[in-house]
From TrEMBL:
The lineage of its organism: Bacteria, Pseudomonadati, Pseudomonadota, Gammaproteobacteria, Pseudomonadales. This is Dephospho-CoA kinase. One of its GO terms (cellular component) is cytoplasm. It comes from Halopseudomonas yangmingensis. HAMAP family: Dephospho_CoA_kinase. Pfam families: CoaE. The gene is coaE. Catalyzes the phosphorylation of the 3'-hydroxyl group of dephosphocoenzyme A to form coenzyme A.
Length: 225
């Protein structure tokens, strides 16, 4: 795989033929922390009018006050994972589960099916030529099975760390723990149909998105890659 900035399309025989959602074309967009996947998704939405489903947003919906999942989380971890207003303290929960792999596994088994249901409902409402499912855990959660193609926003790990430290102001040890919990760069690339290497500027990222948008339109229209 090339290691400098650019956009790469992998031959179409790698398409997920087992996709389970009956919509014309769903693209899964993923990348590790600090990769720039949110900036890529924003370009698809704002410049090209593509319907974007954000798994991170869905993960917040399923733990809103009054939702059964929040009660189960509090029963397991205690009131310390709640804010004063009753909302989930995601930072406190993240710190707890990333320190204890068994607890992270329990949380994922609880939340992933609920998040998937929210995602599928939203994908079914898409009116754009194709839809985009954005998820940092697209591979790990099995959400890639909902898609026809996987787009990976790829960056070297050192750049992921430096970007995240600058953006979030968290300890480096916490960033490395998150990286360890996510799929490796190599694993994401094994699932990729399309890759944007985002190690340059925003204009380069946008150019890659714009090129892929045209390619996805050609797939939607039945043209050969």
């Amino acid at each position: 795989m090339p290691s400098t900035g650019g956009c790469f399309i992998i031959p179409a025989d790698h398409v997920n033929e087992g996709a389970t959602v009956d919509t014309p074309l769903i693209i899964g967009l993923t990348g590790g922390i600090g990769s720039g996947k949110s900036a890529a998704a924003e370009r698809f939405a704002s410049q090209h009018g593509i319907h974007v489903v954000d798994a991170d947003i869905k993960s917040r919906v399923v733990v809103e006050p009054g939702r059964p999942a929040l009660g189960q989380i509090v029963d397991r971890f205690g009131q310390a994972v709640l804010q004063a207003d009753g909302q989930l303290d995601r930072a406190a929960l993240r710190q707890r589960v990333f320190a204890e792999p068994a607890e992270r596994q329990w949380l994922e088994q609880l939340l992933h099916p609920l998040i998937r249901d929210e995602i599928v409902t939203d994908l079914h409402s898409a009116q754009s030529p194709y839809a985009l499912l954005v998820s940092p855990l697209l591979v790990e959660s099995g959400q890639h099975r909902l898609t026809r193609r996987v787009l990976v926003i790829d960056v070297p790990q050192a750049l992921q760390i430096s970007r995240t430290l600058a953006r979030d102001g968290v300890p480096e040890a916490q960033v490395r723990a998150i990286l360890q919990a996510q799929a490796s760069r190599e694993e994401r690339l094994r699932h990729a149909h399309d890759v944007i290497v985002n190690d340059r500027d925003l204009a380069t990222l946008h150019a890659g998105v714009d090129r892929l948008h045209q390619y996805y339109l050609s797939l939607r229209e039945g043209a050969k890659p």
